[in-house]
Amino acid sequence: MKGENFLFGRYKFIEAIKTALEGYPPRDERCKSANWIGVHKALMAIKDVEGMLRSLDPQYYDILMKYIYRGLSTGNRTTCDQCLKIHEKLTEKAGFGCILRSLADTVNTV
User: Fold this and answer.
1) Does domain 4-104 have CATH number 3.40.50.150?
2) Residue 91: which residues within 8 A CB-CB, separation 6 or more?
3) Which H helix or E strand runs over 78?
4) Residue 34 · residue 56 · CB < 8 Å
5) pLDDT band at residue 11 under the 50/70/90 scheme
6) What's the mean pLDDT in 71-90?
């Protein structure tokens, strides 16, 4: 994620998430790992989930849902709690199709 450190340094977590989503799918495993680290860090810092979702282009909802499921797969309680909170709001905004599309796409993983 180019500029990730700058964005985190300025507490612009929503912009960091947008940057990662715009760079999807990552080119290789190293980029995929770097994107996950950045998205995870930003997701954990988000306080206004609804505001974040309003600021995102709907075309990125499915990709965000993939990152949410990756966060849930960590088993870390704090990460899972935050991901479930975001999952609920994202599902309300994007509908159940977002869940199905993110789970069905096994080619472009995060």
Assistant:
1) no
2) 98, 99
3) helix 77-94
4) no
5) low
6) 97
- The domain spans of the chain are 4-104
Q: How far is CA 83 from CA 12, 34, 86, in A?
A: 19, 18, 5
- In this prediction, residue 42 carries a pLDDT of 93
* pLDDT tens digit sequence for 16-28: 888 888 888 877 8
SS (H, E, C) 43-75: HHHCCCHHHHHHHCCHHHHHHHHHHHHHHHCCC
The DSSP secondary-structure symbol of 37 reads H
- List pLDDT tens digits, range 32-70: 888 899 899 999 999 999 999 999 999 999 999 999 999
User: Which of these, 17, 9, 10, 12, lies nearest to 82 by C-alpha position?
Assistant: 17
Give me the phi and psi of 72, to 5 degrees please: -65, -30
In angstroms, the CA 19 to CA 24 distance is: 9
